[in-house]
Amino acid sequence: MKKDDLTFDTSRGYGEGREIEVRMLSKKLDIELIQENSPAVTKRSSDEKERLINRIKRIEGQVRGIQRMIEDDRYCVDVLVQLSAINAALKKVGYTMLEDHTRGCVMNAVEKGNEDEAIDELMKVIQQFSRS
Predict the structure, then answer these.
(1) Exposed, middle or buried: residue 40 (CB in 10 Å: 0-12, 13-18, 19+)?
(2) What pTM value is reported for the model?
(3) N or C end of the chain: which has fewer CB within 10 A?
(4) Does domain 41-131 fall into CATH 1.20.58.100?
(5) 73-123 pLDDT per residue, tens
(6) Domain positions in the chain
């Protein structure tokens, strides 16, 4: 995989490959990430994690469905409709994470006096997210 690729390889799981991918994404977005051990980071609850993971798994299933549709030479419009649904689902996950980040990590950083750094990071993420 090239450094600029942003593909998600589900065979890698959540170990070292995922960390490399996050670093590559932060480099691509030109965003300085707050380190996990930073006091500004707020951990997700198990319910939040489960909700997000279930949504991503559903999206993964949709992507596999599109792969089968292409393999089966399905009508282009049907494939395009499914692609649109995946894009909408990914946006919803992104907005959910953005809201959780704002209410959790950013609020925590503001309470600890790190508001400038947290707000700068948030604004960069919002700008990047709104371009997609």
Answers:
(1) buried
(2) 0.65
(3) C
(4) no
(5) 999 999 999 999 999 999 999 999 999 999 999 999 999 999 899 999 999
(6) 1-30, 41-131
